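Good morning N.,

You mentioned wanting to compare the apo and holo forms, so I went ahead and generated the holo version with adenosine-5'-triphosphate. This is what I fed in:
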Amino acid sequence: MQKIVVIGEILVEIMADFPGEGFSEPMALTGPFPSGAPAIFADQAARLGQPVAIVSGVGVDDFGRLNTARLARDGVDISAVWVDPDRPTGTAFVRYRPDGGRVFVFNIRHSACGRIAVSDAVRAVLDGATHIHVMGSSLSSAEFIALNLDTAEAIRARGGTVSFDPNLRPEILDAPGMRAAMGRILALTDLFLPSGEELTLLTRSRDATGAIKELLAGGIRAIVHKRGAAGASYHDATGSLRAAPFAVREVDPTGAGDCFGATFTALWLRGTPPQEALDLAAAAGALAVTRRGPMEGVSDLPTLRAMLAQPRKEL
Ligand code: ATP
Ligand code: MG
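and this is what came out, ligand included:
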């Protein structure tokens, strides 16, 4: 079986109990929940039985232990997760806006996962991977950009594959070098997993049809476009497919894209037909939003298959 590696942030997420515009007053919060886009991705992939490792760091604190215990329990290889004696585990505070948008306060760059120690354990994981999944949210420092790029290049050079989710957060888009790094990753990408307007973010074309053509012409083999409560679509050189959204009650949308992406990527690596992979990924995304906490809604394959019988919304 293919072995996936993800390089990036492990965080805890602490969420406001009630919607509002930000954090400028005391409020009720719930957490810590295990989080970080690469960690959610890895946890969901592991739940599907896919070999997957995360390269990241945590502090000597309960936030770190909460994460490593969860990842290990679900089958993620955490041998390349270092424990930083000087820095705390990363955090993300999130508050939903009344319009459904999100406000974040991040501590990533100055946390344990904000710098990299390429130890023998990290090297062993990187050298053993046959696929890398790159998260745009993880390209927030020069070190992380370089390690993701170098690993993607090395994996491609030995016949492996690359998937890429731009996973943009306006709060981190303007990090130095981030846009240029995204362009370089895109040039190495086999499977591209943008959400909403991310589809046209890195293309010259401003419209969806033009962007899809341009991306496929540029060497991307498959594009999966996530569209939240509107479902998802798949595009490759032979045509397009759609997955209607499942009818679920959305409790917490954070993590849906990562669960969706992990499911599609794991199935794509196994050669599952794209329509089946798309439907099961849409089931994973839909189940993810029904649970509070970004990593609480991960699913195993029997659960996803059972979900396929559930009602879908009209397209
Ligand atoms: P994230 O916040 O994790 O970055 P994202 O923007 O990358 O999310 P979304 O498009 O929100 O990803 O969600 C991924 C997929 O999950 C969607 O394409 C859809 O199939 C499914 N999904 C998400 N929200 C819902 C919902 N409310 N109802 C049904 N399905 C949903
Ligand atoms: Mg996303």
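The radius of gyration is 18 Å.

Happy to go through it together on a call whenever suits you.

Best,
F.
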